[in-house]
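Contributing new records

If you add data, match the layout below exactly. Sequence lines come first and carry their own label; structure lines follow with theirs. Keep one chain per record. Anything else will be rejected by the validation script.
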Amino acid sequence: MEGSEENRHRLSAVRREGERVTPLELFFDLVFVLAITQCTALMSHDQTWSGIAQGLLILGVLWWAWVGYAWLTSVIDPEAGAVRLVIFAAMAAMLIVSLCVQEAFGNLALTFALAIGVYRTAHIVLFWIAGADDQDLRRSVVGLAVSTAIAVGILVVASLFDGFAQGALWALAIFLDMAGPYFFGSEGWKLVPGHFAERHGLILIIALGESIVAIGVGASGALDLGIGTAAVLGIFLAAALWWMYFDVVALVSARRLGEAEAGREQNELARDSYSYIHLLMVAGVVLMAFGLKVTIGHTGEDLHDVPAFALLGGLAVYLLGLVAFRYRHVRTVNRRRLGMAIVLVFLIPVATVMPALISLTVAVVLIWAMIAYEHRSYGPGRDEFRREASAAHT
């Protein structure tokens, strides 16, 4: 009886106060790594505006599917025996989804939609079990189930079409799916602020890891001075993106999420700043990874319009995501990062008439110059805040 009661508690909707991301959650996210890699591969194989659009639409579907599990593991113990099995089943479904990515708008469109349906169904089932003693949570889960069913249904219908009609149906499915929390309210959800913020920070690191993988793939086993220089610059560019988020922003936002009043206020802050705005940052990293991959393979050639947009536009999207993230938390605009995003967008046409290595060098220099200026403007307050945040985290 005692063991049965313990298992029931681990499956009920109890906030996991003080808990960190578990090894099983990290293991679960590894399949998402493959999915992101496949999105970059799709764009690099089809270096057109259509290829970019398809890659971003697929990323939107994948992201919203993953986000649901980030919310789920705030109210359910992923290490519980029965939950482990469902998590493993969801991983298998996501693996099939990942294998379908490059043909998600082609021969494997229906398979992709059905596999996403299985992945999302496992999420809904676990959430329903977790809400056995919480009627508010169960009402929210019902709303989520409705929006999920509609979105997956539209993806199934989209598999019958091609071209613009198929893309439009995908966009509609993503919009209705992501709009679900607005239609059905946010009061019933629960989350653990520290766990939730850490989970999203780790997924951003996974996305940055994809940019490093893209460097290796772009080199294709070759190495000369140009490729070596571009590879080093690519690492410094990925490091700059890491710095801009994890140096101060991640710490401030996690603290503000923890200080928000539990319930609607905290849930909406988490939904807007993490579930929605983080998609912009991940999309920016994926675009940048595609641009890096092309740059590494063609260091002495001019970038075409699509790879140039991916490299510099991806950086701009990432910066705009950071600007929106800060605004949602503290209602102020980081003018330096907004200005840098605008500068990068204006440099896209210039990048099409100069060697790719020069374009990459300019981007790295500009981004790191901005970071250096920001670091200086923070003064001693930055180091003091980081020490306080580290002590509180410990």
